[in-house]
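pinned: reference chain
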Amino acid sequence: MNRIFKILNITFSFVLIISCKESKVPKNEADRIIIELYMQVSKEDQFEIFYRNTDQVYQTNKSVIVKVEASSLLQKIKFILPDQIFPDYLRIDLGNNENQEEMLLENITIKYNSEEKEFNKEAIKKYFRPSEFIVKEGFPSTLKTIKLNNRYDPLLDSNNLSGIINNLILY
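pinned: its structure tokens
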């Protein structure tokens, strides 16, 4: 009987320790894909990330919009995708402010819980294509947006990211 009591006590203590362990991931971010842009944006704007899987097209109901404050310093622009969304492709719309000044892009990070994949400038070139509304010279460090034929749609369209995202989720 004493031995059973000790086993139950140890088991209870173990469960208590595990359940009281503080998570390093904020609750609203747990088990969600997070995309962070580390960049400098001189004028207030609104960025949007669209997400899709291989057999889909981008749709407005599959996007996350974030207000971006003007700053002369680098800032983290964070997009939290909805729960259970694990996209193959991302499209990062870099605002709708046609008067936006040249922006600086340091890196892009995709996170899932404590795992993350950082895309430095070389990796951004490899995995993301700028639209014709972003001047290619200086990309990816410098994002100079332009208007063409009365249209303004600066964006970065990703290659297939499913392998990267799957690695984040599985490890």
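why pinned: The radius of gyration is 21 Å. The chain has a mean pLDDT of 88.
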